[in-house]
Design brief:
Distance between the termini of chain A: 43 Å
CATH architecture of the domain at 7-44 in chain A: Orthogonal Bundle
Number of helices of chain A: 3
Bound molecules: zinc ion
Strand order of the largest sheet of chain A: 2-3
Shape of chain A: flat
Structural class of chain A: mainly alpha
Oligomer: heterodimer
Number of strands of chain A: 3
Distance between the termini of chain B: 49 Å
Strand content of chain B: 15-25%
Radius of gyration of chain B: 29 Å
Largest sheet of chain B: 10 strands, mixed
CATH class of the domain at 7-44 in chain A: Mainly Alpha
Number of domains of chain B: 3
Number of strands of chain B: 16
CATH topology of the domain at 7-44 in chain A: Histone, subunit A
Largest interface: A-B, 39 and 56 residues
Strand content of chain A: 5-15%
């Protein structure tokens, strides 16, 4: 049986995903996410003895490509998606700036 | 690499200041960039040193709608690594490791998590120590960030610039068990692992270009304890030298902390080569919550017999096997001889073992072949690797039969390495005619006559004088005499 997800847990998940949500949203999502987990729980209750485990819906394995170079993007095109660029590279804000 | 033969469990001692009474326990994580033509999941060229952001495409930039497809060659090289490290090569899957750091434009790294392709192996070091390998899994490399302003340090940079050429380059991460004791063994481990990775064709082994990157998990514990201490992961080790220094400093820091009543906190620490110390890379605790989940765009990788066979076809002998091959050849003749295992390690290290094996196959004396290869030929490894085994065997034959003194043989070998040719012809050209026994007898008698006092001491049993007398004979014959023959001639005159 899955328990009701707490608002704190939702806030934690949101932080990990770098999502800014309000306390109100947190409560809403707690309900919605709990419903999803409840559904997963229902699936989990099925008797799967004798069913081989799979990690994918398709029974594919070893999908491989030859180690042959293909054309890359033009650099201007690559950097056109960057908010800022400098010296042919993506410019990003200081990293871990909040750390000592 | 010397002194690497310390057995597992032996305490690390000399040269590791400030850790008396403690044992340094090290586990190593080595990231190896695979020598493929393209990246792990796209056809972008895998190359070092290209103009920034010119080897990128929608897949390695993580643009919406793009799909990764696994590189067959990368899989083959990963399997080769697994086999070379005596791992079990097994069915595996890929996961997404989620984190927010601009070195990965997708905001996740595709890696193997709970089902890695290689598990439970070992690496045997030249001294015989086996270091356990926990796993060797496939993952993609990250981009390269450069911190600008604030002296280039990450914590006080004004901003960072990112080049994604390296993002998506195939890696195998090799995780050792905490079987390594101290800095010296850690260096020996990385050095041997590098040799294995190069021999298997998986890597170019260039540490200075980041082809091999090493992180060290370091902990200390009182001598005799079998409980592991709290470990710190030390990053930014770009050379064997940095690795050794960082482990010594980190261990000393931990011991000082424990001795003063403190506790080691498990954390990641950054090695600063210039300052010669490690510093904490503190981050929010939840930063390590990577929320791994199965990569939906990649199907399981199952190395069946066909794939493994294809991957390992033509795989050469690994250094440990090559050392065993040479050691077996030399066998008991060198069993007790000091330095023999160092000589074996040297010839394998320099790729001269094939020469030794071939020469012995042609009838050369194994012990002499090893010595001449490890000492003299090793001075010019490149030429020595091209040396004709027959010529080498012929030369050794001339020395064994006394036709050349060892001094002469070394000179002929040097000539052989530089210009090639026939040993016998070279010897003749250098005027190394074999000394006739009559000529030698005359010289020995002259030397004895000229050194009556020394001769008396020799007769009195003072063996050290023999060296002096032999030296005089050598001088008189300009090195043409064979040392062993001279000693015999002196002994024969004792009466
Ligand atoms: Zn790409």
């Amino acid at each position: 049986m899955s328990e009701q997800l707490s608002s704190e847990a939702v806030a934690h998940i949101a932080r990990l995903a770098r999502l800014e949500i309000t306390a109100e949203e947190s409560a809403t999502y707690a309900g919605q996410l709990s419903a999803i987990l409840e559904h997963v729980e229902a699936v989990r209750r099925l008797d799967t003895a004798g069913v081989p485990p799979t990690s994918h819906a398709l029974e594919l394995r070893n999908v491989l490509r030859a180690d042959e170079p293909r054309p890359c993007l033009e650099r201007d095109e690559v950097l056109s998606g960057a908010p800022r660029a400098e010296d042919g590279r993506f410019l990003v804000p200081r990293i871990l700036g909040e750390e000592p | 690499m010397s002194g690497s033969g310390t057995p597992a469990g032996a305490p690390a001692r000399a040269g590791e200041a400030g850790v008396e009474g403690y044992e340094i326990v090290v586990g190593l994580e080595v990231h190896c960039e695979l020598a493929t033509a393209t990246k792990l999941f796209c056809g972008c060229t895998n190359a070092f040193g290209a103009v920034s952001n010119t080897h990128v495409c929608p897949v390695c930039l993580g643009l919406p709608g793009s799909l990764p497809v696994l590189n067959r060659r990368a899989v083959e090289l990963a399997i080769r690594i697994g086999r070379a490290l005596h791992c079990e090569v097994r069915p595996s899957t890929f996961h997404r490791k989620n984190y927010f750091y601009p070195d990965m434009p997708k905001d996740y790294q595709i890696s193997q998590y709970d089902e890695p392709i290689n598990v439970d192996g070992y690496l045997e070091l030249p001294g015989g120590l086996r270091v356990g390998i926990e796993r060797a899994h496939i993952e993609e490399d990250t981009g390269k960030t450069t911190h600008v302003g604030g002296g280039g340090r990450i914590h006080d940079a004004d901003y960072s610039l990112v080049d994604y050429n390296r993002a998506g380059v195939p890696l195998v991460e090799i995780v050792s068990r905490p079987d390594v004791r101290g800095a010296e063994q850690a260096r020996a481990y990385v050095s041997e692992l590098r040799a294995v990775l190069v021999a298997s064709g998986a890597s170019d082994g260039r540490m200075e270009e980041g082809s091999l990157r090493v992180d060290a998990n370091v902990s200390v514990r009182p001598l005799g304890s079998d409980v592991l201490g709290t470990r710190c992961e030390v990053k930014n080790l770009n050379s064997l030298r940095s690795l050794g220094r960082a482990i010594e400093h980190e261990a000393a820091r931990q011991v000082a902390l424990v001795e003063s009543g403190g506790r080691v906190v498990q954390e990641t620490r950054h090695w600063n080569e210039a300052e010669g110390r490690t510093s904490s890379m503190r981050s929010k605790e939840e930063a390590n919550d990577y929320r791994y989940f199965s990569e939906p765009d990649l199907v399981p990788l199952v190395p069946d017999a066909d794939l493994v066979e294809r991957a390992t076809a033509g795989m050469p002998l690994m250094p440990a096997a090559r050392r065993k091959r040479v050691a077996a050849l030399v066998g008991d003749a060198l069993g007790g001889e000091a330095g023999a295992s160092d000589q074996v390690a040297t010839v394998v290290d320099l790729g001269l073992d094939d020469l030794v094996v071939a020469a012995v196959g042609l009838g050369a004396d194994p012990s002499l072949a090893l010595r001449r290869a490890a000492n003299e030929a090793a001075q010019r490894p490149e030429e020595a690797r091209r040396l004709d085994a027959t010529a080498f065997a012929d030369l050794l034959g001339l020395e064994v039969t006394g036709k050349l003194s060892s001094t002469q043989a070394k000179t002929v070998l040097a000539e052989l390495l530089e210009h090639g040719g026939e040993p016998e012809e070279i010897a003749r050209r250098l005027g190394y005619e074999a000394l006739s026994s009559d000529e030698l007898a005359g010289v020995v008698d002259d030397v004895i006559a000229a050194h009556p006092a020394e001769w008396e001491r020799f007769l009195g049993g003072e063996s050290k004088v023999a060296q002096l007398l032999t030296g005089q004979v050598m001088k008189a014959t300009k090195g043409r005499a064979n040392g062993r023959t001279v000693a015999e001639a002196l002994d024969a005159r004792r009466g």
